[in-house]
Amino acid sequence: MSMKVNGLTNGVPKIPNTTPNNNSQKTPAADNQNTPAAVYERSSRWRPDTATLNEIKASVNASTERLRELVARLLNQQGQAWSNAFNINMIEIDEATRLEAQSLVADDGFWGVEQTAQRIFDFAYALAGGDPERAELLRGAVERGFANAERIWGGELPEISGRTFTRVMELFDNWMTPAQE
Asked: How far apart are CA 138 and CA 17, in angstroms?
């Protein structure tokens, strides 16, 4: 599943009615000489994009459940040898499980850098309702989240997490930098 940021915005320009209200011979072009083609009315109160937030949550929950089942299956296989449980130094991983886990964290995998970074950014963008004035606040929240994760981890996060953080910050930079025309 891929999501495009442009598809997340809810703001739709309001186009003024160009049809004359009476049956006069005025043409729409004559009415529009001093009327803008489209008017953007910004709400004074931001609204998060709950549909996108719910979609992201459902996607993450489904993949988390898949990963949980993968780990549970692995631990169940190890649990079959309970009598040897206290002597296990390494967990043996079967080839199918290893390949599935590897595909999940691959560059194009669900838990890979690009998809994870995009989900984090999309979640922040949806929380902001697409409002760029909230970008700095949400960027700071993501930075604090990664810092908390590192503190809980007990040191530097794995390399894939660092690359994910860098990619999320690039997405924020792109959002916060006005497009050059």
From this structure: 37
pLDDT at 18: 44
For 174, the enclosing helix (H) or strand (E) is helix 159-176
Fill in the amino acid letter for 172.
Answer: F
Tell me if the pTM is above 0.85: no
pLDDT digits (tens, 9 = 90+) for 18-38: 444 444 444 444 455 555 555
- What are the sequence ranges of the domains in the chain? 5-51+105-176
How far is Cα 7 from Cα 11, in angstroms, rounded to an integer? 11
Q: Of all residues in the chain, what percent are helix, strand and coil, respectively (each to 5)? A: 60, 0, 40
Q: Are 93 and 77 in contact (CB under 8 A)?
A: no
Cα–Cα dist 26/19, whole Å? 9
Give the separation between CA 53 and CA 5, rounded to whole angstroms: 13
* Chain CA centroid to CA 68, Å: 21
Closest alpha carbon to 9 in 180, 135, 171, 125: 125
Q: Is the dihedral of CA 146, 148, 151, 153 positive or negative?
A: negative
Is residue 169 within 8 A of residue 128, CB to CB? The reply is no
